[in-house]
Design brief:
Elements (H helix, E strand, L loop, with lengths): L1 H11 L5 H10 L9 H13 L2 H15 L6 H22 L3 H10 L7 H10 L4 H23 L2 H9 L1
Helix pairs in contact: 1-2, 1-3, 2-3, 2-8, 3-8, 4-5, 4-7, 5-6, 5-7, 6-7, 6-8, 7-8
Length: 163
């Protein structure tokens, strides 16, 4: 059982997969018996949030350093462009509601809109660290709730009842 929690914790830390992939894995029978929702949810949130301060303070510096390196340059350039694009998109759409937009960007589980990208965008926009962390943390909590409900079939059942 502990191995399953460690696995979903580690999956939650992986860029682009994050909590959005870890919650369905933990609730599936792929690992054997599904994990209990509340402990799974907490473990996935912690795993998803653990890298956030490191990303905020160091990722941009590392990416800018490595963008012209031979073997890693293309990937680092891709990450820089993704962070800048996400940041500009957030800034254009949000105006004064930039932190709320960051919350929604992280919280609505779409491909490429997780804590990693949101934190990188906040870093590139030189947003306030504490306010950004709160927006990202609440966004991760929302994304986890949405993924938990979706994984349990709640949205499909509601659609069948309402539709």
């Amino acid at each position: 059982m502990l191995k399953k929690y460690i696995l979903v914790f580690l999956v939650s830390m992986v860029p682009l997969i994050e909590l959005r992939g870890a919650v369905p894995i933990g609730l599936s029978t792929w690992l054997g018996d599904p994990l209990q929702l509340l402990p799974l949810y907490i473990v996935c949130i912690l795993g998803n949030l653990l890298p956030v301060p490191l990303i905020f303070f160091f990722a941009r510096k590392i990416l800018l350093w490595g963008k012209d390196k031979k073997y890693i340059g293309k990937f680092f350039t891709f990450c820089i462009e993704k962070g800048e694009k996400g940041g500009k998109k957030l800034q254009e759409k949000a105006g004064k509601g930039l932190y709320f937009a960051l919350f929604l960007f992280v919280g609505i589980p779409l491909p490429g809109t997780g804590a990693w990208t949101g934190t990188l965008a906040a870093s590139f926009l030189d947003m306030d660290f504490k306010k950004s962390i709160i927006a990202i943390m609440t966004g991760v909590i929302l994304a986890g709730a949405i993924m938990g409900l979706a994984s349990m079939g709640i949205f499909g059942a509601a659609g069948a009842i309402l539709g």
